[in-house]
Amino acid sequence: MGRKTWFSIPEKNRPLRNRINIVLSRQLKAPPAGSHHLAADFSSALRMIDTQLSQQTDQVWVIGGSSLYKELMETKSIIRLFVTQIHQQFECDTFIPEICPEKYSLLPDFPGVPRGVQEEHGIQYTFEVYQSIE
Ligand SMILES: NC(=O)c1ccc[n+]([C@@H]2O[C@H](COP(=O)([O-])OP(=O)(O)OC[C@H]3O[C@@H](n4cnc5c(N)ncnc54)[C@H](OP(=O)(O)O)[C@@H]3O)[C@@H](O)[C@H]2O)c1
Predict the structure, then answer these.
(1) What is the mean pLDDT of the chain?
(2) Which of 82, 66, 71 minimizes the C-alpha distance to 3?
(3) Average pLDDT over residues 40-53
(4) Residue 98's domain spans which residues?
(5) Does 63 fall in a domain?
(6) pLDDT of residue 105
(7) Are residues 45 and 82 in the same domain?
(8) CA–CA separation, 77 vs 117, rounded Å?
(9) CA separation for the pair 43, 41 (Å, rounded)
(10) 69 in a domain, yes or no?
């Protein structure tokens, strides 16, 4: 995750449980307190996972923010996007890049991901999973 995403997580919930939390920053010199690792760019983070963390990892999740999503979505690797479409308007200041239909296809279903409209506290939403097209 990017540095701002890390600091947007309430302190009591950091690091995110049962996950190795890698924070990306070009400025920080050491991992922020509570995080596990710091990486200076996206490819260093992936290299770290492939080398020193390979025994402890089976999946890599990029959890934002927007510039990291953009960088990831422009890579040539096969990736999946797990998106929550919230069926309500909110004023926002941070946005995910557009999901390009030539590059990503919406899967009809995905194991473990509920289908159809969900609702929580009166807010409706739908889960979507996209797979990059080779
Ligand atoms: N709804 C969601 O799913 C979701 C997910 C994530 C975040 N968010 C929200 O989005 C906001 C934060 O997102 P954001 O886009 O503003 O910021 P961000 O991507 O979380 O953080 C930006 C910072 O991360 C570092 N960074 C980003 N890309 C990097 C790269 N390739 N290499 C090295 N460092 C990199 C830089 O830190 P330095 O300036 O230290 O160099 C950059 O200033 C928060 O409000 C958060 O709550 C929402």
Answers:
(1) 96
(2) 66
(3) 96
(4) 78-132
(5) no
(6) 97
(7) no
(8) 30
(9) 6
(10) no
Q: Do residue 50 and residue 89 come from a single domain?
A: no
**Sorting pLDDT into bands at 50, 70 and 90, what band is 34?**
very high
Distance 8 CA to ligand 1 centre (A): 9
Query: How many domains in the chain?
Result: 2
Burial (CB count <10 Å: 0-12, 13-18, 19+), residue 35: buried
My answer on whether 82 and 128 are in the same domain is: yes
For the CA of 40, the nearest atom of ligand 1: 33
Per-residue DSSP letter, 1: -
Q: What is the pLDDT of residues 87-101, one digit of tens each?
A: 999 999 999 999 999
Out of 7, 25, 70, 92, mutate this one to test ligand 1's pocket (max ligand atoms within 8 Å of CB): namely 25
Residue 62 lies in a domain: no
Residue with tokens 């020193």: 52
> Do 46 and 85 fall into the same domain?
no
Ligand 1 — pocket residues by CB below 6 A?
Answer: 1-5, 8, 24-28, 40-42, 63-68, 71, 94
Protein residue whose Cα sits closest to atom 32 of ligand 1: 41
Residue 18 lies in a domain: yes
